[in-house]
Design a protein that fits this description.
Elements lengths: L1 H30 L2 H4 L20 H5 L7 H24 L6 E4 L7 E4 H13 L4 E10 L4 E9 L5 H19 L7 E7 L9
Parallel strand pairs: 4-5
Antiparallel strand pairs: 1-2, 3-4
């Protein structure tokens, strides 16, 4: 889902950019009267070819306002645009948590392991390591190919390299074995706990 969202973002941004670029270039051509100055012609149906042209004429703006269906359609279209924009905005901040993963039970059927249970185990094991003050784990990806995002808050005296090694060798390796997974990719983010500087007397 995360990859799909990134692809949708790129396509939408590319389309919006191309549309804005095309409209801006067309308006700039007419506003600066470039066809006349540079002696080149534009297609007959091309708008905004002269400096005095407007984006929307009075006729174009008021053509359908007298029709009974005009305002309901406009309001409905704007409502759809607003809802789509809100969905897109909220989807940028939403973390897609994996509800459960499929575990090979050896009988050909498989079993389901709750994602929250695996997250709790990872948080407990990594949080008990020396130098780790707090631990948060989030299971993402697909049911057969889960991924882990971890946020660790380290104590001032902690060695980040040592913490990462122990998280990989102990917490992540144990979770991978218990879930019967061949691979469990993980993204681990480290940050130091805030503390006051010591005073030397």
């Amino acid at each position: 889902m995360h990859k799909v969202l990134r692809a949708v973002n790129r396509v939408l941004l590319a389309l919006i950019g191309l549309i804005l670029l095309g409209v801006g270039a067309s308006v700039l051509l007419g506003g600066l009267d470039l066809p006349r100055r540079w002696h080149f012609g534009m297609p007959d149906h091309w708008p905004w070819t002269r400096a005095g042209d407007v984006l929307l004429s009075d006729h174009n703006r008021t053509r359908w306002t007298g029709e009974g269906w005009w305002w309901p359609v406009v309001i409905a279209a704007l409502a759809v645009v607003v809802l789509l924009a809100l969905w897109w905005l909220l989807s940028q901040f939403r973390r897609h948590r994996l509800g459960d993963i499929l575990v090979d039970s050896g009988d050909g059927q498989g079993a389901r392991l709750r994602g929250r249970a695996l997250e709790d185990v990872l948080e407990a094991q990594s949080g008990s390591l020396e130098g780790v003050e707090r631990s948060r784990a989030l299971l993402t990806g697909r049911r057969r190919e889960p991924r882990v995002r971890m946020n660790l808050t380290l104590a001032p005296h902690a060695d980040p390299a040592d913490v990462l090694t122990r998280v990989s060798d102990e917490a992540l390796a144990g979770a991978r074995r218990s879930a019967g997974l061949d691979h469990l990719p993980a993204e681990v983010r480290l940050r130091a706990v805030k503390h006051r500087a010591g005073r030397v007397l």
